[in-house]
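Inverse folding, one chain.
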């Protein structure tokens, strides 16, 4: 990331992280129940580990012609290898722990615009990694969380992100897609709404480039 984007990131995080959920702020570290040292767990015959320890963290904004959405959060947990037909390695998370906040400053859906989602539980997480090295493509994730939108319970937020890595060129941005839904109520999606451009993704469908901030997705052998 460039110096300009890093400076904007700190300002963005200072604003968004004040929106913490419950008694535990998302800026506080989560208990780490897994040792930082790799265990002696043997990989599968194809070299792909059966179980990994995954983490997602970050914060930032996506912006386009006056439309703006901010996000911040972190989660971590174990995940089990679940093969798919795409050219990527995939692991499903088991009881992930974390918190997520999304502020929809200005979007085209009046029912959503100006509101804030705060997670109360992380329902699921999936980690993806290229099966062969890909430039500017470290990993990707799909996070699903339940929570409150403007203090109303029962909402579901899905956060999809692709991490281009620390060594990427300044013009190579992390990519995200954020959706919010309520049973029988309005559904909003940064992709389907047309509010934000689709700017590619190294893993999964096209997403929107993060204009300020970044996302880190880390997958480690246990």
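Residues assigned per position:
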């Amino acid at each position: 990331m460039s110096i300009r984007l890093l400076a904007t990131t700190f300002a963005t995080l200072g604003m968004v992280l004040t929106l913490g959920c419950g008694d535990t702020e998302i800026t506080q570290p989560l208990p780490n129940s897994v040792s930082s040292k790799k265990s002696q767990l043997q990989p599968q015959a194809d070299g792909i580990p059966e179980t990994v320890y995954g983490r997602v963290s970050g914060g930032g904004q996506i912006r386009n012609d006056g439309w703006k959405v901010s996000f911040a959060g972190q989660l971590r947990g174990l995940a089990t290898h679940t093969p798919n037909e795409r050219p990527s390695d995939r692991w499903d998370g088991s009881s992930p722990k974390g918190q997520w906040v999304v502020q929809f400053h200005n979007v085209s859906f009046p029912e959503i615009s100006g509101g804030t989602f705060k997670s109360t539980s992380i329902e699921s997480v999936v980690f993806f990694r290229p099966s062969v090295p890909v430039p500017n493509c470290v990993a990707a994730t799909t996070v699903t969380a339940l929570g409150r939108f403007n203090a109303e319970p029962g909402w579901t937020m899905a956060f999809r992100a692709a991490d281009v890595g620390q060594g990427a060129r300044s013009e190579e941005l992390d990519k995200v897609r954020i959706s919010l839904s309520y049973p029988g109520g309005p559904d909003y999606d940064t992709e389907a709404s047309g509010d934000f451009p689709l700017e590619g993704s190294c893993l999964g469908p096209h997403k929107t480039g993060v204009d300020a901030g970044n996302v880190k997705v880390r997958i480690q052998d246990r």
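The beta strands are 51-64, 67-81, 88-106, 116-130, 139-149, 152-163, 175-181, 187-189, 208-209, 212-221. The helical segments are 3-16.
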